[in-house]
Amino acid sequence: MSFLQDPSFFTMGMWSIGAGALGAAALALLLANMDVFLPKSRSATLEYLEDIDLKTLEKDPRTFKAKELWEKNGAVIMAVRRPGCFLCREEAADLSSLKPKLDELGVPLYAVVKEQIGTEVKDFQPYFKGEVFLDEKKKFYGPQKRKMMFMGFVRLGVWYNFFRAWNGGFSGNLEGEGFILGGVYVVGPGKQGLLLEHREKEFGDKVNLVSVLEAARKIHPQTSASDTK
């Protein structure tokens, strides 16, 4: 058993353990960056979205069905992951850059949040140029809610998104729940249905603005019988 007293044997053993740990870490990093391991989403239906209860953020809140948002002119709706998140604020600002063109089309821009903490929504509104409503049951984040936990912090795409938003001058805080992933919807009036459904696949996965505008241009506003006379 003299080999146990050989320093070179001990060194080789430690090197092997270190190499194994490094290999395991590299494998974990590789797997975390493969989209196949991302939380799977299930597409929403118009019927599902129509029945969602939303609340206004006034002093005396009003509860109403979400279909009110789009039943006449359609709507672009952002399901905000977390109002204080600088990545969410970046996407809100990007969507708000479309507001003049959406106004020309007569299509409103809205956002829903899943909680109202302190001044978080108020602090979010300078980045977002539309009305914001509360979705207490988090229905707009479904029908199958998806969470990205700490795996998000080892994804290269997330770090790219961090640096992009930081370089853009956006900042934020850590207040509130931020693991349930959000998204963006473009919904047509009446029964025209969903024209675009973007589900955030990781932190900072922004919707394509060209796709949003293309979908908004497909909206056919509802006309009443009096309008056609």
From TrEMBL:
<comment type="similarity">
    <text>Belongs to the peroxiredoxin-like PRXL2 family. PRXL2A subfamily.</text>
</comment>
<dbReference type="Pfam" id="PF13911">
    <property type="entry name" value="AhpC-TSA_2"/>
</dbReference>
<dbReference type="GO" id="GO:0005737">
    <property type="term" value="C:cytoplasm"/>
</dbReference>
<dbReference type="GO" id="GO:0016209">
    <property type="term" value="F:antioxidant activity"/>
</dbReference>
<keyword id="KW-0472">Membrane</keyword>
<dbReference type="InterPro" id="IPR036249">
    <property type="entry name" value="Thioredoxin-like_sf"/>
</dbReference>
<keyword id="KW-0812">Transmembrane</keyword>
<keyword id="KW-0963">Cytoplasm</keyword>
<protein>
    <recommendedName>
        <fullName>Peroxiredoxin-like 2A</fullName>
    </recommendedName>
</protein>
<feature type="transmembrane region" description="Helical">
    <location>
        <begin position="12"/>
        <end position="32"/>
    </location>
</feature>
<keyword id="KW-0676">Redox-active center</keyword>
<keyword id="KW-0049">Antioxidant</keyword>
<keyword id="KW-1133">Transmembrane helix</keyword>
<dbReference type="InterPro" id="IPR032801">
    <property type="entry name" value="PXL2A/B/C"/>
</dbReference>
<comment type="function">
    <text>Involved in redox regulation of the cell. Acts as an antioxidant. Inhibits TNFSF11-induced NFKB1 and JUN activation and osteoclast differentiation. May affect bone resorption and help to maintain bone mass. Acts as a negative regulator of macrophage-mediated inflammation by inhibiting macrophage production of inflammatory cytokines, probably through suppression of the MAPK signaling pathway.</text>
</comment>
